[in-house]
Amino acid sequence: MLVDSPAVLEDAMGKRGRPRIDLTGQRFGRLVVVSLEKSPRSRPHWRCVCDCGEQRVVYGYSLTSGRTVSCGCFKVAFATLLNLSHGHTRGRSQSPEYSVWEAMIQRGTNPKNRDWKNYGGRGITVCSRWLQFSNFLADMGRRPSPNLSLERVNNDLGYSAENCKWATRKEQRANQRPARKKAA
Ligand SMILES: [Zn+2]
């Protein structure tokens, strides 16, 4: 742990007992900061609401460092990754749907994932229902063809049955980089 990193120093309380940085309204993974938690502690703690509806009080540095990204509901997803694959993993080989689901969970819920900053880090997360692989499979079905991948219809929204479809990579790229509209 980097105890003396600038982020930690910046996160300490200022002279008047107010935090040096205001995190109110900011999103960290599935958590949105709603208020500063009144406490005698020397470091600011923040009350957060998770996308699943739970509330948590979290130390500011845990948020800004990416260590805490949910109320704990993501742990459900990781437990599922490790244990329950519903016959879609056999030894080291996985079904395509399971691989797609695992990659989605990783970039949407794991701050250590290399794609996290473009997904979970900017609020592109996974709906609570899809933290279970069996629900994801029930909603999306088997991948119809090997050249299809999971696409979000609205690129600013997260992963859910309402916002996802199987699409070709070509369709997906077109969606990610919409043609620029001419200025009027
Ligand atoms: Zn939660």
Which key phrases capture this entry?
6 helices; two-stranded antiparallel ribbon; alpha+beta; 184 residues; binds zinc ion
Bound molecules: zinc ion
Distance between the termini: 52 Å
- One letter per element, helices H and strands E, the order comes to HEEEEHHEEHHEEH
Mean pLDDT across all amino acids: 78
> Percent of residues in helical segments?
25-40%
The coarse overall form would be elongated
Low-confidence stretches: none
Give me the number of helical elements: 6
Strand percentage, roughly? 15-25%
Task: Indicate the structural class.
Answer: alpha+beta
Question: What is the gyration radius calculated from CA atoms?
Answer: 19 Å
Describe the biggest sheet? 4 strands, antiparallel
Across the major sheet, the strand order is 1-2-3-4
Walk me through what this model shows.
The longest helix is centred in the middle third of the chain and has 14 residues. The protein folds into 2 domains: 59 residues, no CATH class; 103 residues, no CATH class. It has a 4-stranded antiparallel sheet. A two-stranded antiparallel sheet has the order 5-6. The model has no long low-confidence stretch (mean pLDDT 78). It has 6 helices and 8 strands. The chain has 184 residues and is an alpha+beta fold. It starts with 5 loop residues before the first helix and ends in an 8-residue tail after the last helix. Helices cover 28% and strands 18% of the residues. The radius of gyration is 19 Å and the shape is elongated. The chain binds zinc ion (ZN). Zinc ion binds next to loops.
